[in-house]
Specification:
Blueprint: H1 2-26, H2 48-52, H3 88-91, H4 114-120, H5 150-163, H6 176-182, H7 184-196, H8 199-211, H9 213-216, H10 222-232, H11 235-248, H12 250-254, H13 259-269, H14 272-282, H15 289-293, H16 297-317, H17 321-330, H18 332-340, H19 342-346, H20 351-361, H21 364-376, H22 378-382, H23 387-397, H24 400-410, H25 415-420, H26 425-434, H27 436-446, E1 449-450, E2 453-454, H28 455-460, H29 465-475, H30 478-490, H31 492-495, H32 502-505
Antiparallel strand pairs: 1-2
Helix pairs in contact: 6-7, 6-10, 7-10, 8-10, 8-11, 10-13, 13-16, 14-16, 16-17, 16-20, 18-21, 20-21, 20-23, 23-26, 24-27, 26-27, 26-29
């Protein structure tokens, strides 16, 4: 009985909708009746001009329906809705309520009525939530208050500097050291103020650093405050801070993960006399080798070689050879140990870096001493995991004696094939190809016949040596380049079966 009543009620609604639609259609209006019915979109029979000039009663479009419909721009401020695709409800029956069928909204002129103006007005005074750790985007003035509780005041200060873009070190005097050690964001605030702040702020930072030096230089964030004072402070500030560094022991700081960064920064920004004083503090150590093998101290040794060598070169360029010699004597104890243990250092993860810096930065006299010892042991370094980088650095410098020794090694017992197929030695062969002095000799060695086959073809088939062939094709010039491509093209059918060497066959020779 209840089902019959519901059916009669639905029929009454359908009859009422049909009558209403017919009435408005007779009056020239386009009205859509029914719910979730694809055939109910009556606008398909009306053109744009008819729709644009149609007026509807206010009750034809409920206000709440606006959130479901999207209206494209049209001749007025309002336009007719676009119905979903005809097949949408057929393929998505469970999502039919997402696209209900509503009557076409009325069309107004350039200004919408009052009931729609309130709905369309953009909200005012919206406070956009700020990203965590960023500055407060509003103009709210954050006041800094102190309660006498050190921990609570520190939390207030950290909140103040992170949410107030106008905060300075003067505002947080007394908490500068704690802020520098708090976290990365607070440490960056201190560094930023040291760079762009006033002289008064830098002086406050220096006072805080001197009172908390032992805690700051060992801290992962606090050490950056000391580096900032060295970089942006005045000469007097640097001198005061370096007095604290000497008192804390340069050797201990050099062996520390965070302290070594401060010593490196000091060598980089201080003048010649101050840099030599730091090197003098390191001369008290018995052996340099443990420092070179240390994961932190080796960076200080590299920086010392770089900075003192640059000072010596500058003095030599100005004609002061005595000053240049005195400067190089400052790091003589380092270079002597490097030369005496060059093979051992070149095969070490950290030691190879120090040898490379000596080859790269030392003046010609000291560099020749290093290269002379390197020639004696180059055979053991070419195939070494770390030694090959030392040999590459020497090749980049252009040591003729070393280049000649390597070429002779490559021509002995078909070593060119073994080196080119080796994971580390192949890097040395490529470096030789990029050097104009040794390129021709290496290409001639690659073009020799080995067991009835050209060496280039044998190398092109290897998963490692094919990169050497590619480098040879890039670097070769003139007749050697044509000869290389001729050999590869004559063996195209054999090489094209190997995917890694197909790119060799696709590049025609340049004539």
């Amino acid at each position: 009985m209840q089902r019959a009543d519901n059916q009669e009620e639905e029929e009454d609604h359908s009859l009422y909708d049909a009558m209403t639609a017919t009435s408005y259609a007779d009056q020239g209006h386009a009205f859509i009746a029914g719910r979730n019915d694809e055939s109910s979109f009556a606008t398909s029979n009306l053109d744009d001009a008819t729709v644009g000039s149609t007026s509807f009663p206010p009750q034809a479009l409920p206000y709440s329906n606006h959130q479901y419909m999207g209206y494209p721009p049209a001749a007025g401020w309002y336009a007719a809705p676009l119905p979903p695709a005809a097949h949408y409800n057929y393929h998505h029956p469970h999502q039919q309520q997402m696209y209900p069928t509503f009557p076409t909204p009325p069309t107004y002129g350039s200004n919408p009525p009052v009931q729609y103006q309130q709905h369309l007005r953009h909200p005012e005074n919206i406070q956009v939530p700020t990203r965590r750790g960023s500055f407060n985007s509003t103009d709210e003035v954050i006041k800094l208050t102190f309660t006498g509780d050190r921990q609570r005041d520190l939390r207030n200060v950290l909140y103040f500097v992170k949410n107030n873009r106008n905060a300075t070190l003067c505002d947080v005097d007394g908490f500068i050291a704690e802020i520098a050690k708090a976290d990365e964001g607070a440490s960056r605030f201190v560094q930023r103020r040291l760079q762009s702040g006033t002289e008064t702020e830098r002086r406050l930072a220096l006072q805080a650093a001197l009172h908390n030096f032992s805690d700051l230089w060992q801290d992962p964030f606090g050490n950056f405050m000391l580096q900032g004072i060295l970089e942006f402070g005045s000469a007097d500030m640097r001198e005061e801070l370096m007095t604290a560094v000497y008192a804390a022991d340069v050797v201990d700081m050099t062996l520390n993960m965070h302290g070594c960064r401060i010593i490196q920064k000091a060598l980089l920004v201080l003048d010649e006399a101050s840099a030599c004083k730091i090197i003098t503090e390191l001369q008290d150590i018995e052996e340099v080798i443990p420092f070179i093998f240390d994961p932190h101290a080796n960076h200080v040794v590299q920086r010392a070689i770089q900075i003192i060598s640059n000072f010596a070169k500058a003095a030599a360029d100005h004609g002061d050879s005595d000053a240049a010699a005195n400067l190089m004597n400052q790091i003589k104890f380092i270079l002597d140990d490097v030369i005496a243990n060059i093979e051992q250092l070149s095969q070490h993860r950290y030691g190879c870096r120090v040898v490379q810096r000596a080859i790269e930065y030392c003046p010609e006299e000291q560099r020749d001493d290093v290269l002379k010892e390197l020639v004696e042991c180059h055979r053991n370094l070419v195939e070494d995991q770390f030694g090959n980088y030392v040999i590459q650095q020497a090749i980049a410098i252009g040591s003729e004696e070393l280049l000649t020794a390597i070429v002779e090694s490559l021509n002995e017992d078909d070593a060119i094939l073994r080196f080119s197929k080796h994971k580390y030695a192949s890097n040395v062969v490529e470096a030789m190809l990029t050097n104009a002095t040794s390129r021709e000799a290496i290409l001639n060695a690659m073009l020799k016949d080995f067991d009835g086959s050209c060496g280039v073809i044998e190398l092109a088939k290897d998963p490692i040596a094919n990169y050497v062939v590619k480098k040879a094709l890039d670097c070769a010039e003139g007749q050697q380049r044509d000869k290389l491509f001729g050999v590869i093209n004559s063996n195209r059918q054999q090489l094209v079966r190997i995917s890694r060497v197909r790119f060799h066959c696709t590049s025609p020779p340049v004539i």
